[in-house]
Design brief:
It contains 13 helices and no strands. By secondary structure, the protein is mostly helical.
Length: 263
């Protein structure tokens, strides 16, 4: 018997022995939750952009000073993208993204009380806000590396493009929905309220994330054998992956990596 016949026979046996029935769709619920997390993430980012004019009037900031506040977030966010992904690989997306959301909630809340923080600590409002936004950027950095890790854990290779598209669509939804929503909040109440509501929203989603999400489908009580089999059959085995992860030095020598960075 040829190797080709043996492989075909093994594949046929695997299909015949696969669990029968209707697959649960928990992985797509995880994908929808990742989309919601991205929406929450954008809600918190856009709050200070919309409330910026009101904050500048309240604290007598110049355009340059407010620009420095915005840049502090981007700096922290940029520097900790790679470490955030490494944490997701080490500790799993459930813990990393869950605690990241808790941190977003805390630092968004503190941003709304920045005047009081300055009074209590004796630190200037501008210095306190720059520091706060830098740290906020650090804790927002893991969102997309961690989301990608969750998709890799939960989806077979044939569905990962769609799953990542679903997760990233939260950014588009956020860019469409959040600016008018935050503007309405600021005009109806005050600029602090936009931060308080964004903090509350993040806290609620963090609770849902911790209660519902697991790092792997096999750990989730609602994933049935049909869905689990479909995921595992479409996931590369360990023998198909690197036995030993490449070192940081070898990655820094990768032309593909630098081309991605430049793009």
């Amino acid at each position: 018997m040829s190797w080709e016949n043996i492989e075909n026979k093994n594949e046929k046996l695997a299909i015949e022995s696969a669990p029968k029935g209707i697959a649960s769709c928990i992985r797509w619920r995880i994908g929808a939750l990742l989309c919601t997390v991205a929406l929450v993430n954008f809600f918190q980012r856009v709050s200070i952009s919309v409330a910026g004019d009101s904050m500048m009037r309240a604290f007598q900031f110049s355009q340059t000073e407010m620009g420095t506040v915005f840049s502090a977030f981007v700096l922290g966010y940029t520097l900790f993208q790679v470490p955030g992904g490494m944490l997701a690989d080490r500790f799993g997306p459930r813990l990393v993204l869950g605690w990241a959301m808790v941190s977003w909630s805390l630092f968004t809340l503190l941003t709304g009380t920045i005047g009081r923080i300055s009074s209590l600590t004796g630190i200037g409002v501008l210095a306190a806000l720059i520091t706060l936004r830098f740290i906020f950027g650090i804790f927002q950095a893991p969102i997309f590396p961690t989301s990608t890790r969750a998709v890799a854990n939960w989806f077979p290779a044939s569905e990962r493009g769609r799953a990542n598209g679903l997760a990233l669509s939260g950014i588009s939804l956020g860019s469409f929905l959040m600016p008018p929503v935050v503007s309405w909040i600021v005009l109806t109440w005050n600029w602090q309220s936009s931060f308080y509501l964004a903090s509350l929203f993040s806290s609620l989603i963090a609770v849902v994330w911790f209660l519902y999400v697991r790092d792997y489908p096999s750990e989730h009580h609602a994933v049935n054998s049909v869905e689990l089999n479909a995921i595992q059959r479409g996931t590369p085995s360990n023998s198909d992956l690197f036995v030993k992860p490449p070192s940081i030095a070898s990655q820094l020598r990768s032309g593909d990596l630098w081309r991605l960075i430049v793009s």
